[in-house]
Amino acid sequence: MSEGGSSLSGEVQELTARLGPQSGDAATMERLIEECAQAVLRGGETQLSGMCFTGETFVEPLRRVLEDLPPDPSRSVSVRILVPDFTRPTGVPGLVRAADGKLTDAPGFRRHLTGKIAGYAQDLRTTRGRMLHKNQGTLSVEFRAVHISPFLKLYAIGDDVVYEGIYDTLEVRPDAYVTSAPLPQGPGPEEGQLLDLIGRGSLLTRWSRYDGEPGGVLVDRRCGFFGTLWDAARRLEPEAAPGGSGA
Fold it and tell me: Rounded to two decimals, what is the model's pTM?
């Protein structure tokens, strides 16, 4: 390649890096959190939405971003988190029965997941008070639950940018959540191996309405999808974080 061509290529790479990811590009969870941070740093009103498993990979880094914001009492941040309703029986995650290899409900694991969700919700509500104390702005937090398996990852920054992905790894391991007090909806004694969904490290796809088609259309469809489930979901009442920690 000629020297001129090499220089042009370098300029294009520099411009691409400066512009950041475009619609349809693969992106990491770290890039999502970085763009969320940029949005709230601009001040004004910002709405952040997430369709999560428990909220672990989204809520925890977002909470650190919010607590490190510079003072700005006019800032307003709204966080909506939609999670599966683990108070009701599910197939996935679930138990692989030793007898026939079929999936069944795992009440102990659901109880563990419900506790984790309550903990992350309480952590964000604690951040709300800390932001007020440090004049960083106001934070509203709402968690809702819908009876659905947690296959899809979906995150929105306002109505302009969407990141989406899937929990693309299945893990079978010994069930460490057996208890002698099953949930009221539980089908009976738990047995077999636990089949869990893992999404940590999976890539996301970023869509923005500012990048033209098909970005704008997909942002509208994904935001509409989230909004429909959000309206149908039940609100999780504020509750204290349970003891213990989970993976």
Answer: 0.81
Q: Which of 232, 244, 150, 130 is nearest to 195 (CA)?
A: 150
pLDDT, tens digit, 9 for 90 and up, residues 133-168 = 999 999 999 999 999 989 999 999 999 999 999 998
Torsions phi, psi of 239, nearest 5?
-150, 155
For tokens 């951040």, the residue is 127
For range 52-69, the mean pLDDT: 95
What's the whole-number average pLDDT of the chain? 84
Residues 4, 129: Cα–Cα separation, whole Å: 56
User: Which are the contacts of 239, defined by CB distance < 8 A and separation ≥ 6?
Assistant: 118, 121, 122
* Distance between CA atoms of residues 219 and 54, nearest Å: 23
Ordered alpha helix ranges (H), the chain: 3-19, 29-41, 56-67, 107-133, 215-232
- Residues in CB range of 11: below 8 A, 6 or more apart: none
Q: How confident is the model at residue 19 (pLDDT cuts 50, 70, 90)?
A: low
Q: Please count the helices (runs of H) and the strands (runs of E) in the chain.
A: 5, 12
Contact call for residues 225 and 95 (beta carbons, < 8 A): no
